[in-house]
Design a protein that fits this description.
Blueprint (H helix, E strand, L loop, with lengths): L5 E5 L6 H16 L3 E5 L10 H6 L13 E5 L6 H13 L4 E4 L7 E6 H14 L6 E5 L5 H16 L9 E3 L4 H13 L7 E4 L2 H13 L9 E3 L16 E3 L2 H16 L9 E4 L1 E3 L11 H33 L4 H7 L11 E7 H6 L12 E8 L3 E8 L8 H4 L5 E9 L2 E9 L7 H33 L2 H13 L7 H15 L4 H11 L11 H4 L7 H18 L5 H12 L19 H16 L10 H10 L7 H9 L1 H10 L3
Parallel strand pairs: 1-2, 1-3, 2-16, 3-4, 4-5, 5-11, 6-7, 6-8, 8-9
Antiparallel strand pairs: 10-12, 13-14, 13-17, 14-15, 16-17
Helix pairs in contact: 1-8, 4-5, 6-7, 9-10, 9-13, 13-16, 15-16, 15-20, 15-23, 16-19, 18-19, 19-20, 20-21
Length: 662
């Protein structure tokens, strides 16, 4: 497919206003050159590699490398090296320029901010303009490459003026508040004279230093000058306003588009790296600007207004949640959603959902659909429509009416709860209109509503399966329960509850827990045809009697063989295998992973209840003695993982045993 004048942008943390400012500047510059942006952005920065991160990073799978003419990666913000490398590789394989912002990859154009030069200018400024000689430096993390580079800048500039660098004047604030406060106290406790200035390697530490000095009765800048670096958003609301060097979004957008346009026109090498100068801002914390009360008040009024808008919209989304949850259906969601897209500043929205989710939710979809996505809802200022259009990834961005072709920017955001991915939103993105916190609230609300709908439909499906259990099987189970002697009357109930506890501990989903809990009740259904005199024999069984007892597993499987539904399929396996042992010495000789995990769980639950219960041939063991026996059989009779889950949940086992006594 021919490349179009579309630039793919991969970024994260889309809920932060600083990201929107950067994208706004980039979009403005791109439009000047005749390009549009398609931005792919999860809320997570993908640092932890959690279940949620893994689901959210799938949004980058939607980048249409066959259509875009260039790819921009915001590497400092995307904190997964694996994701960054994969995106860069796909871009290079598609033979398009890849611009890597604040990162370094081979064969890409690496664009970095020249923070070091700005830091040097700030140090020179406090020396020349404020006559500071005793200058302390608050570095970041000891041994960190960025931190060490900034220490070298500090040493170099001090040497220019012939000022010695005393090692006690270097502290490590680890780039955040608490360590910076501790490092400041060390400065104050040092036998060296109090510094004239504390230069900080980032704004977060600079703000922390200012606040801590104020708590100690020291004034900034009258007693000690403090500076930062990086232009953190919080500094705009801090008193005194922090002297710093900012990553100017306009300069960034201009530099990126000049570089990219030169590349695409063949005027600049794809691999040419560039550095963007930071903008130094000398303000109140170094004494270069008097604190202007009116400006601070104006900022606070604007902040209050924005907070009130967000609070009002949060209330509106609660209302939205109430409406949808009253029915908990996709039909209710698609009906009410259009009423809540205006406040975040959205003029066009498409809601795409995975086909299997739409099908599970009971929403009618076109027949013979094998496309992975469904366009459920198309919304603009002029129209609202329910589309139900199947979409493959190849045709996803090719329909003008769906992709808002005239829009200079599109933003695509994932919808998920943990690792459960439902689909995504594509927005007609006007960065000057977007209320970023309201957008975040909408996406989070929508994700939770989709999760509620899915869970409700799964529960309904499970309930339907239970209702579909054949009358013959239900009657058989009733006969088994009635046939039990007085010694084992609640055995089935207890085993099902022990099974539930183990399944939950081993990470089963709620639906899977319910399936195995119900299925476990039928583990001994094959005993319906075992003579009562054998079942209730008080003494030791003869070899022939034991062979008869053993037939109940295969008989149970036979009785359940033709019954429908997932629960009955699980019950059949459990009935057949619940007397198998991990080391292969059970009834049929199956061992280890050959035995279905459901059967391994029920085997332990069944044995525990037998151990702590009175039988015709034995007295009950205590819970603690049963626990010792089971732990002793770890890796021989029982699956080690199931035993570990049992040990972790033993208190719950005791509770169940006490709750349902024979």
């Amino acid at each position: 497919m021919e490349k179009q004048k579309i630039i793919g942008v991969c970024v994260t943390s889309i809920h932060k206003i600083t990201i929107h400012k950067l994208l706004a500047a980039l979009g403005t510059e791109a439009e000047k050159y005749g390009y549009s942006l398609h931005i792919f952005a999860p809320f997570s920065d993908l640092y932890h590699g959690s279940k949620s991160d893994i689901a959210e990073q799938k949004i980058f799978d939607l980048v249409p490398f066959d259509r875009i003419c260039a790819l921009i990666l915001f590497s400092e913000i995307i904190k997964s090296e694996q994701v960054l490398k994969a995106l860069a590789k796909k871009g290079l394989e598609s033979e398009i320029p890849v611009l890597n912002i604040k990162g370094t990859f081979e064969d890409t154009c690496n664009i970095r901010y020249d923070a070091e030069s700005a830091l040097a200018d700030i140090i020179r400024h406090v020396i020349e303009h404020h006559q500071c000689k005793r200058i302390n430096f608050m570095a970041g993390i000891r041994g960190n490459s960025v931190s060490e580079k900034r220490i070298q800048i500090y040493r170099k500039v001090m040497a220019e003026y012939g000022y010695p660098v005393e090692e006690d004047r270097i502290g490590y604030g680890e780039f955040w508040t608490i360590p910076a406060r501790k490092a400041t106290q060390k400065f104050l406790d040092s036998p060296l004279p109090v510094p004239d200035a504390i230069i900080c390697a980032n704004d977060a530490m600079g703000i922390a230093v200012c606040d801590y000095l104020a708590e100690q009765g020291l004034r900034v800048p009258e007693d000690i000058i403090v500076t930062g670096l990086g232009g953190l958003q919080e500094r705009e609301y801090h008193t005194p306003l922090l002297t710093t060097a900012v990553y100017d979004p306009v300069k960034t957008g201009t530099a990126i588009m000049e570089q990219l346009n030169g590349m695409l026109r063949g005027e600049i090498s794809y691999h040419e790296d560039i550095r963007i100068p930071c903008k130094t801002v000398y303000t109140a914390s170094c004494g270069c600007a008097i604190h202007e009360k009116q400006k601070t008040e104006n900022r606070l009024v604007a902040l209050f207004s924005m907070t009130e808008q967000e609070r009002a919209y949060r209330h509106a989304t609660y209302e939205f949640t109430t409406y949808v949850n009253s029915e908990t259906t996709l039909q209710a969601l698609e009906k009410h959603l259009p009423d809540y897209i205006q406040e975040p500043g959205l003029t066009g929205v498409n809601l795409y959902l995975h086909t299997d989710f739409v099908s599970l939710a009971g929403f009618p979809i076109p027949p013979d659909t094998d496309a992975p996505l469904i366009l459920l809802k198309h919304m603009t200022e002029q129209e609202q429509s329910l589309s139900l259009l199947p979409r493959s990834l190849q045709e996803l961005w090719t329909s003008p009416e769906e992709t808002f072709e005239d829009a200079p920017q599109l933003l695509t955001i994932p919808l998920n709860i943990l690792d459960d991915s439902f689909g995504f939103l594509t927005l007609e993105y006007h960065s000057d209109r977007i209320l970023h916190e309201c957008l975040y609230e909408l996406v989070m609300t929508l994700s939770h509503l989709l999760d509620h709908i899915k869970k409700r439909m799964e529960l309904l499906r499970t309930n339907q399966q239970v209702n579909d259990v054949s009358e013959q099987t239900i009657q058989s189970l009733a006969e088994i329960v009635e046939a039990k002697s007085e010694f084992t009357g609640l055995h089935v109930k207890r085993v099902s509850e022990y099974t539930r506890i183990l399944a939950e501990a081993m990470g089963y989903s709620p639906e899977e827990v319910n399936n195995i809990r119900i299925a476990s009740m039928m583990h001994d259904i094959g005993k319906i045809n075992i003579p009562a005199e054998i079942l209730e024999k008080p003494g030791k069984l003869t070899p022939d009697e034991f062979e008869i007892i053993k037939t109940h597993t295969k008989e149970g499987e036979r009785l359940l063989r033709n019954t429908p539904g997932k629960i009955m399929e699980t019950a059949k396996i459990i009935a057949l295998e619940h007397h198998e042992k991990w080391n292969g010495t059970g009834y049929m000789g199956r061992s280890g992973q050959e035995i279905h995990q459901d059967s391994r769980i029920v085997a332990l639950a069944d044995v525990f209840d037998a151990l702590v219960s009175k039988r015709p041939y034995k007295k009950p063991f205590s819970n603690e003695r049963a626990r010792e026996i089971i732990i002793g059989d770890r890796g021989t009779h029982f699956d080690p993982d199931v035993v570990d889950a049992f040990v972790d949940t033993f208190d719950q086992f005791r509770e169940i045993h006490a709750r349902y006594p024979d």
